[in-house]
Write a structure and sequence with these properties.
Radius of gyration: 17 Å
Structural class: mainly beta
Largest sheet: 11 strands, antiparallel
Order of helices and strands: EEEEEEEEHEEE
Length: about 120
Amino acid sequence: MRDGYVARWRGREYQASPDGDDVRLYQPEPGEGFEEIRPGRYVRVLPASEVEGLAYVRTTCTWQGQPFIVLAEHDGWLRVEYTGGRWPVAQAMGLEVFDFGVYQGWAPAGAVADLREQRL
């Protein structure tokens, strides 16, 4: 499940993070021009003008008829964040209050519908 920036460079898509006039590209293996920042994580910083495309990818779904963003996946469960904005609905679903107006919970992966990635 993806929720973050991606950049296309030299025909390949990378996890990315914009940083002013630069874009940081990340990959799990060594590569030319990539520097290890921790085991299994390598970064290369490029001028934004060299990147073929930059987008924000978000995975969304519907659970119990309500809209959610998928934040993570673990052992057949999805960490989801409710985007419907209605406290009574969030409360009835047993969601946790993560922050003011932000409600999250764990949904069985098999119980969600309309699972898809969106590019913003």
